Amino acid sequence: MATTFLLHVQLSWGEERDYLIANDVEPGLMHRYQTRDNWQEVIIDALINVPVAPYLPSKAVNPPIATAKVMSVKAIDLADAQPDVQRTRSQFIMAVVWQKQTSAANYNFLHHDYDKWTQRQIKADVDYWCEHKRHPLTTLVTKWRCAEQRRRFHREIME
């Protein structure tokens, strides 16, 4: 049995989704899972970057990324994971850290080297989670970008 971790997250606009933990984060979480009773505490309520649209087979355009809040995590057999469940990105901040830092510090860690509109969405998400501020225009642009990415994805798989 190959164990992996399924995260249930909430996006700043209210939508909830499931993701598998990023490949390079998995070993650290696996160590906690094998050695601690409270292994989930490192990831519950963490802020984590997630793709909000599919990756293209051609890899021509990266999907938009958002910063979600982890609602729950469970260890599952990799064979039981739905085939279309995406993996999170590697950037995450534990709740005990992000809740004590400023929005600016959290954004600085999470924004990475993403494109301009993804960075704007991450900023909007961090503002939402840290200060309960909404950025409806940024979220609207992200939802439009997701729709465009899904169109590209369907076009590529139909070719």
Rg, Å, rounded:
16 Å
Query: What's the arrangement of strands in the largest beta sheet?
Result: 2-1-4-3-5
Query: What characteristic shape results from the CA principal axes?
Result: globular
Can you count the beta strands?
5
Most strands sheet: 5 strands, antiparallel
Q: What's the number of helices?
A: 5
Structure description:
By secondary structure, the chain is an alpha+beta fold. Helix content is 38%, strand content 21%. The protein has 5 helices and 5 strands. A 5-stranded antiparallel sheet has the order 2-1-4-3-5. A hairpin with a 5-residue loop joins strand 1 and strand 2. Helix 3 packs antiparallel against helix 4 and helix 4 crosses helix 5. The longest helix is centred in the C-terminal third of the chain and has 23 residues. It is globular and about 45 Å long. The termini are far apart. The mean pLDDT is 96.
